[in-house]
Design goal:
Number of strands of chain B: 39
Strand content of chain A: under 5%
Number of strands of chain A: 0
Radius of gyration of chain A: 19 Å
Helix content of chain B: under 10%
CATH class of the domain at 1-165 in chain B: Mainly Beta
Number of helices of chain A: 12
Helix content of chain A: over 70%
Structural class of chain B: mainly beta
Shape of chain B: elongated
Strand content of chain B: 35-45%
CATH architecture of the domain at 1-165 in chain B: 3 Solenoid
Number of helices of chain B: 4
Shape of chain A: globular
Order of helices and strands of chain A: HHHHHHHHHHHH
Distance between the termini of chain B: 52 Å
Oligomer: heterodimer
Largest sheet of chain A: none
Chain lengths: 256, 400
C-alpha cells in the first residue's frame, strides 16, 4: 500500500461536500434522538434503524460514485511505476477510513457522550464494521461493471438486498419451516447478511430481557458467548475482506 | 399472669456461667424465664423448647445442628428466639427439617437471627400470630431438591414476616394455606426457584418487598384477596421465569410495584377481578402476558417504558379494561391538551403475536421488514385483537 495515495484519498474526501453533509446529517439525527429520549436503550433502538439503513446505503452508493469519478485518476496512477494491488488497496483504505470516520463523528461521538453503555458500544462497533464492509462491496461493484449508471444501480440493488429483501426471504423461510427445529440454521443463514448480524448483536444488548426467553436463549448461546462472538466478528471481517479481495484480483487483470 | 411475670428469672448460659449448655438451662427454667446465651459454639443436637421462655443470644452464639439435627424446635406458645446464629441443620427428604421450626402453637417471636446453611430456614406449621422479623437466611443449594425454603409457613394464620433477607434457598418465602398474613420489606434474592411462592393463602398482603434474580421469579396461585403493593420485581431472566406469575388469583390489588428487566414481568392465567394500578414496567421482555382466561381485570395508570413487548395475549375476546395507562410506544396526539391521547392505543403488536406462534421470529425483531408489517397492521388491524385497547392513553407517565 502507498501512504501517499491513502493520504491523497483522505484529504480529497475531507474536502468532499457529500461526506461533510453525511456527517452533519448523522450528527443532527443522533443529537436529536439522544436529546429527546431520556431512556438510553430507547435512544439506541432509534439509532439502530439509522445505522442499519442509512449507513450501508451511503457507504455503498457514495463509494461507488467516488470510484467511478476517480477512474481517470486511477488510470493515471496505473501508468506510474506502482503495483496495481497497492493502488487499489490504498484507495480502499482511504475510503474505508473516511466512511468510518464520518460515522464515528456523526453517531459514535454522540453515542459515547449521551449513551455510554454496552448497547451503545455495540452500536458503534456495528456501525464502523458496516461502514467498511459496504465500502468493500462498493469496490467490488465499481471494478466489475464498467458503466457508471449500471454500477450505481447494482450498488443500490445490493443495498436493497441486504437491507430488505434478505429479511423478506428469511421471513418466508421461517413461515415455511416453522414446524422444524430451524433455530440453528436460522443463525447460520443470518450470518449471510452483515446488516442482520449487526442488528442481532445490538438486539442482544437492548432487548436482553426478551432474548433470555427460549429461542432468544439459543441465539444468545451463540452470539453471547466468547466463541460465538469470535465467529461473528470473523464473519464480519470476511464480509470486509472477501469482496475487497475479489475486486483486487479483478483489478489486477482489468483492461483500463 | 402478672404474678407469674414478677417471678420471672434470668438464666445465663455460657462457658463462664453456671449453665454450660442450653439444654440444662431449659430443663431448669420455669415458664416465663429469660435465658441469656453468651457467645460460643453450642452443639447440642436438637434443642426442644417446651416451656414459655425467652431465649436471647448475646453476640450471636452459634447453635450448630451438625448437619444431622433440627437445631431449634418450638412447641409451646409465647416463645421468643432472638439474636442467634443457627447453622447446619440436618437434611432430609422425609421430614422438613428447619433451622427453627414452630410446631402447632401461637405467639412465637423470632427476630434478629442469622440462619446459615440450613435445609429449611424458619418453618411454621399450624401456628397463629407468629412474628418473624429481621432474620438473615442463607443457604447454598445447588439443586432444588437439596435445599428447602427460606421462610415456610403451612396452615397458619396471622403471621408477620418483616425485614428478612433470604438467599440461596429453594423458595425464598413459601406460604400454603396461610391467611391474614403480612409480608413486609423482605429481600428475597438468588433463590433457586421462586422468590415468593404462595398457594391457597387468602387475605394476605405483601408490601415493600424486593424479589431479585430468583430462578423463576415469583409465583402465586389459587388465592383470593391479595394485596401486593410497593414491591420490586427485577432481573428474573429465563424462558420460564416470571417477575410475577398469577394463576387463579381473584379480587386482588397489585399496585405501585416496579417491574424491571424481567423476561416476562407479569404472566396472568385464570385470574379475575384484579386491580392492577400505578405499576411501572421498564426494560422487560414482555410487560404483561395476559391470557383470555383472565376476566374483568382493570389495568389503569400503569407505565410501560422500553419493554420489548408491552402486552401479549393468546387472543380471543377480552373483558379486561385498559385505561389511562402510559405507553411509551403510543404514537397518537393530544389536541385538546388534557393529558389524554385523542386516539386509542392498541398495545398488542402484530410481531408479538407472531413471536408467540413462531418463537424463532425473534431473530427478525427490529428488522425493517417487520417494522413495515407492524405499521400496516396498525393501519388495518386484522390479526391483532381489536378490543384490547386503551381508549384513554396518558401522554405522560403518571409515576415519576
Amino acid at each position: 500500500m502507498s501512504k501517499k495515495i491513502i493520504k491523497y484519498v483522505i484529504t480529497d474526501l475531507l474536502r468532499n461536500r457529500t461526506v461533510l453533509l453525511y456527517t452533519l446529517v448523522l450528527l443532527a439525527l443522533s443529537l436529536g434522538v439522544f436529546l429527546m429520549e431520556d431512556n438510553i436503550d430507547k435512544g439506541i433502538a432509534s439509532m439502530l434503524n439509522i445505522v442499519l439503513f442509512v449507513v450501508p446505503l451511503v457507504s455503498i452508493v457514495f463509494s461507488t460514485i467516488y470510484l467511478y469519478n476517480s477512474s481517470e485518476f486511477i488510470g493515471l496512477l496505473v501508468s506510474q511505476p506502482l503495483k496495481r494491488q497497492s493502488i487499489w488497496l490504498s484507495i480502499a483504505v482511504g475510503l474505508g477510513v473516511m466512511m468510518a470516520f464520518a460515522f464515528f463523528v456523526g453517531i459514535g461521538v454522540p453515542t459515547l457522550i449521551f449513551a455510554y453503555s454496552a448497547s451503545g458500544l455495540m452500536l458503534i462497533v456495528a456501525g464502523l464494521l458496516l461502514s467498511v464492509i459496504f465500502v468493500s462491496l462498493a469496490m467490488w461493484t465499481a471494478v466489475y461493471i464498467r458503466d457508471k449508471s449500471k454500477g450505481i444501480g447494482l450498488a443500490i440493488i445490493l443495498w436493497l438486498y441486504f437491507a430488505l429483501i434478505f429479511d423478506a426471504i428469511l421471513l418466508f423461510l421461517l413461515f415455511q419451516f416453522a414446524d422444524y427445529p430451524i433455530e440453528n440454521i436460522m443463525v447460520a443463514i443470518s450470518m449471510l447478511n452483515p446488516i442482520d448480524i449487526s442488528r442481532i448483536l445490538v438486539l442482544l444488548e437492548i432487548d436482553l430481557s426478551a432474548m433470555m426467553g427460549y429461542t432468544g436463549a439459543i441465539f444468545r448461546d451463540f452470539f453471547g458467548t466468547g466463541g460465538g462472538m469470535f465467529v461473528t466478528l470473523g464473519v464480519m471481517l470476511l464480509w470486509f475482506a472477501v469482496p475487497l479481495w475479489l475486486s483486487n484480483r479483478y483489478f489486477k487483470k482489468k483492461d483500463l | 399472669m402478672v404474678v407469674g411475670m414478677s417471678h420471672a428469672a434470668t438464666i445465663h448460659v455460657g462457658k463462664t456461667h453456671a449453665f454450660k449448655s442450653i439444654h440444662s438451662a431449659i430443663a431448669k427454667a420455669n415458664a416465663g424465664d429469660t435465658i441469656l446465651v453468651h457467645s460460643g459454639l453450642y452443639q447440642e443436637g436438637n434443642i426442644n423448647i417446651d416451656k414459655r421462655l425467652t431465649l436471647i443470644g448475646i453476640d450471636h452464639p452459634v447453635i450448630d445442628g451438625k448437619k444431622e439435627y433440627e437445631p431449634i424446635s418450638i412447641r409451646v406458645e409465647g416463645v421468643t428466639v432472638k439474636g442467634f446464629t443457627i447453622q447446619n441443620s440436618g437434611h432430609s427428604s422425609m421430614n422438613d427439617i428447619a433451622g427453627i421450626k414452630i410446631y402447632n402453637t401461637n405467639n412465637v417471636t423470632i427476630t434478629d437471627n442469622i440462619l446459615d446453611d440450613n435445609f429449611f430456614g424458619i418453618y411454621a406449621q399450624e401456628s397463629r400470630n407468629c412474628h418473624i422479623e429481621n432474620n438473615r437466611l442463607r443457604a447454598y443449594g445447588k439443586a432444588e431438591h437439596f435445599v428447602g425454603n427460606g421462610i415456610h409457613a403451612w396452615k397458619s394464620d396471622s403471621i408477620t414476616i418483616v425485614g428478612n433477607e433470604i438467599m440461596g434457598h429453594r423458595d425464598g418465602i413459601y406460604l400454603e394455606f396461610v391467611t391474614h398474613t403480612e409480608v413486609d420489606s423482605n429481600l428475597s434474592q438468588n433463590n433457586l426457584r421462586y422468590g415468593l411462592h404462595f398457594m391457597f393463602s387468602h387475605d394476605n398482603s405483601y408490601l415493600y418487598n424486593t424479589f431479585t434474580s430468583n430462578g423463576a421469579g415469583v409465583a402465586v396461585m389459587y388465592t383470593d384477596r391479595v394485596r401486593m403493593e410497593h414491591n420490586v420485581f427485577n432481573e428474573n431472566w429465563g424462558d420460564s421465569a416470571y417477575g410475577l406469575l398469577l394463576k387463579d388469583i381473584r379480587d386482588s390489588h397489585i399496585q405501585h410495584n416496579v417491574f424491571a428487566k424481567n423476561t416476562t414481568a407479569i404472566y396472568m392465567e385464570g385470574s379475575n377481578r384484579i386491580q392492577m394500578l400505578d405499576n411501572r414496567f421498564e426494560n422487560n421482555g414482555w410487560a404483561i402476558k395476559i391470557f383470555s382466561s383472565c376476566m374483568n381485570n382493570t389495568l389503569s395508570r400503569n407505565s410501560f417504558i422500553q419493554n420489548t413487548f408491552d402486552i401479549a395475549t393468546n387472543g380471543g375476546r377480552m373483558t379486561n379494561r385498559f385505561e389511562e395507562n402510559y405507553w411509551d410506544k403510543y404514537e397518537g396526539y393530544d389536541l385538546d391538551k388534557d393529558g389524554i391521547g385523542d386516539v386509542p392505543h392498541h398495545p398488542v403488536s402484530l410481531f408479538s403475536i407472531l413471536v408467540e406462534r413462531y418463537p424463532s421470529m425473534m431473530l427478525l425483531f427490529r428488522s425493517f421488514m417487520v417494522t413495515l408489517f407492524d405499521r400496516s397492521e396498525k393501519l388495518i388491524p386484522s390479526l391483532t385483537p381489536e378490543h384490547l385497547k386503551d381508549d384513554k392513553p396518558l401522554m405522560k407517565s403518571a409515576i415519576i
